[in-house]
Automatic annotation (TrEMBL):
It is found in: Cell outer membrane. Its main location: membrane. Residues 1-20 form the signal peptide. Homotrimer. The keyword Acetylation does not apply. It is a multi-pass membrane protein. This is Porin.
Length: 546
């Protein structure tokens, strides 16, 4: 109701002010589908998302645009566009902005809000909204905008048509943060608990011995593996208790403790009691130990995750040249209003405690694109860079991407296109990590069987990522999609889509925005497919433009 009143108020205000200019246009689209969706085959079986039915929104929007001719070669224009989600009335992120829930509590609420401009609480004018001037010299505009780096390929080659889950952006990586390729769930948990247990082991044993670190690492690995498998706190504690007894009865461990003046039996009892107390704290959301564990898990994910450039940004200034024999040049810059914020606020490991790793963020970005379209041929080269990506908290110095595309009409009814993309992460130099690199490619084609029936097929592949200079095996994914469109009128069509992302065991790619539903039914967001799971979707729906 509030949105409706706001839309009516804006339309009335625009209509009153438009008497001296061209009328304001109200436009948009409604795209809804009945979908069967699942994500099974996860590396950890308990993280599968079983098949379910839902009504899915495909980027339904409402917008206002208008212009005023100032003179023969100067026109002012504006656009205000907002997302609408008629299936549940929420933004693309669903009604909840809470991060993934586990036995430890909310893992990282930040990702629910910053992974994508589409996630989080709905806001008015949250889609491309800007004001600008245009003339024979080109056009310049400023506001909140999609980077052309991301949008031009699906728009020109029609990889993006009727629903966001039918686009190869699923594996090109757009709009995803660090969970697309990253640390194995078990490895993150093991490293997290090993770090957390170190001071607990020292305190329980009562002094530093040559085997304290071994005890902490062994117990941490066992507890981490049990946690990653989805065991309950009681089950994890029972396993840990058995692990303590086994460890301290080991002749080498016991002899090392005795040589240091420690009674293994007393140390074992003390350690089991300490583990019980620690387990209660770790699994109590909001406790100091729970917060420490969560911060460490986040940090390990950032270290081993991947940041993808290219999505919708705030504070953008964009210039587009006039077409020159089919060639257009486009440039844009964006900045964030977070000057003087301190980056790398959490400890990843000992290398992150040095002062050199903590620095003030200077987040900005830029893109440059060369776009050619003439006589049925399309080609483009687009480059984009994000400096100090805000969502990475200073862990990255920069991230950049380069995307090349070529497509053509073979006939008025048939077209095809090929896209290649490389994305690179450059880490904060004080951390000592090498670059992350990920390549991907897309092949897409369409054919009009009749003037009113069109088939679109897409195949894409994200190759294994290179993490800190070394290939991360099994971190790639494949994407396949087939869509049929029946045109009922110039503004209305019916569509049917089958799509699948086949993730390797260390990958977690998902459909672009309308992703596989998380067990928390309020969340439909791209970061929630479990590692190794294969999202599949079958959908039929209606698309109406107005």
């Amino acid at each position: 109701m509030q949105r409706s009143l706001l839309a009516l108020a804006l339309a009335s205000a625009f209509a009153a002010s438009a008497q001296a200019a061209e009328p304001v246009t109200v436009y948009g689209k409604m795209t809804l589908g009945v979908e069967s969706i699942a994500a099974t085959g996860a590396t950890l079986a308990n993280q599968n998302i079983e098949r379910r039915m839902r009504v899915t929104d495909g980027a339904s929007t409402l917008g206002f645009r208008g212009s005023e001719e100032i003179n023969d070669d100067l026109t002012a224009y504006f656009q205000i566009e907002t997302q609408i989600k008629p299936d549940d009335g929420c933004g693309f992120g669903g009604c909840s902005t809470v991060g993934k829930i586990t036995a430890l509590g909310p893992q990282d609420n930040r990702y629910a809000a910053i992974t994508s401009p589409h996630t989080g609480t709905s806001r008015f004018a949250n889609r491309p909204s800007f004001v600008g001037l245009r003339g024979s010299w080109g056009q310049i505009q400023m506001g909140r905008m999609d980077m052309y780096y991301e949008k031009h390929v699906p728009n020109e080659l029609h990889l993006l048509r009727t629903g966001l889950n039918t686009t190869a952006l699923a594996v090109l990586g757009s709009n995803q943060l660090s969970l697309a390729v990253g640390a194995n769930d078990t490895v993150v948990a093991q490293r997290t608990f090993s770090t957390t247990l170190a001071p607990i082991v020292d305190a329980a044993i009562g002094k530093s011995t040559p085997v304290n670190a071994t005890i902490a690492a062994t117990l941490g690995n066992g507890i981490g593996a049990a946690y990653a498998q989805g065991l309950t706190p009681a089950q994890i504690l029972a396993q840990a208790g058995g692990g303590v007894q086994a460890l301290l009865s080991n002749p080498q461990i016991a002899s090392a403790l005795i040589a240091s003046g420690v009674n293994p039996v007393q140390a074992g009892a003390s350690l089991q009691a300490a583990l019980g107390t620690a387990a209660t704290q770790v699994f109590t959301p909001g406790s100091a130990l729970n917060t420490q564990v969560l911060n460490q898990a986040r940090a390990y994910t950032v270290q081993n995750g991947f940041y993808f450039v290219g999505h919708r940004y705030n504070n953008v200034v964009q210039y587009r040249s006039p077409a020159m024999n089919g060639l257009t040049v486009l440039g844009a810059v964006h900045t964030r209003e977070n000057k003087d914020e301190l980056g790398v606020e959490y400890a990843l490991d000992k290398t992150l405690t040095n002062s050199a790793a903590q620095r003030k963020l200077n987040s900005w970005g830029a893109e440059l694109t060369f776009h050619y379209m003439n006589k049925g041929v399309f080609a483009s080269l687009s480059m984009m860079r994000d400096n100090d990506p805000y969502s990475m908290g200073g862990a990255l110095d920069s991230a950049y991407g380069i995307k090349a595309a070529y497509g053509m009409y073979f006939s008025p009814e048939t077209r095809a296109g090929l896209v290649f993309e490389r994305q690179v992460n450059k880490y904060n130099g004080a951390l000592g990590y090498g670059d992350n690199v990920r390549d991907a490619w897309v092949l897409s084609g369409s054919h009009k069987v009749t003037p009113k029936i069109e088939l679109i097929a897409t195949y894409a592949q994200a190759l294994d990522a290179e993490m800190h200079g070394a290939k991360q095996a099994n971190s790639g994914a494949r994407y396949a999609q087939l869509t049929g469109i029946v045109t009922l009128s110039p503004r209305t069509n019916l569509f049917a889509t089958a799509a699948k992302v086949a993730n390797e065991s260390e990958a977690a790619y998902n459909f672009y925005v309308s992703g596989a539903a998380h067990p928390n039914g309020d969340i439909q967001s791209a970061q929630y497919t479990s590692r190794g799971a294969d999202p599949t979707s079958f959908q039929v729906g209606i698309n109406h433009n107005f």
